[in-house]
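Minutes, project check-in
Item: structure for the 131-residue chain
Input as provided by the requester:
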Amino acid sequence: MLMRLILLFTMVPLIELAILFKLNQYVGLGYTLGIVIFTGVLGAYLAKSQGNQILFRIKMEMGEGRMPGDELINGLCVLIGGAMLLTPGILTDTTGFILVLPGTRHLVKVFIKNKLRKMIDEGKVNFYFRW
């Protein structure tokens, strides 16, 4: 697991840098910087607005006495997506938009729920309750 994280945090920035250099060759430095700044600002706005909506729905569900499981997954996706959108790069921006936008986030949420359900069924995840 540690090795995967090391590879992730070293390879992704290198790949992103290579893509940005290549993009710079095709469209120029000004447009490349403009794209990075625009996606960062747009990503921050989207993450904030989606996060506020999710917090409202969590409060509403808890007020009704329900566990907001779907909304917690939505919140996690928006948090991770927002962080990726603030990170300069084309791949991280694409992944960030997928996680922040509601339509595509739903597909990711279904995948996460299926993955969790499978892990629970296989006994790889345990839940402990303290009273």
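Outcome recorded: The chain has one domain: 2-121.
No further action items on this chain.
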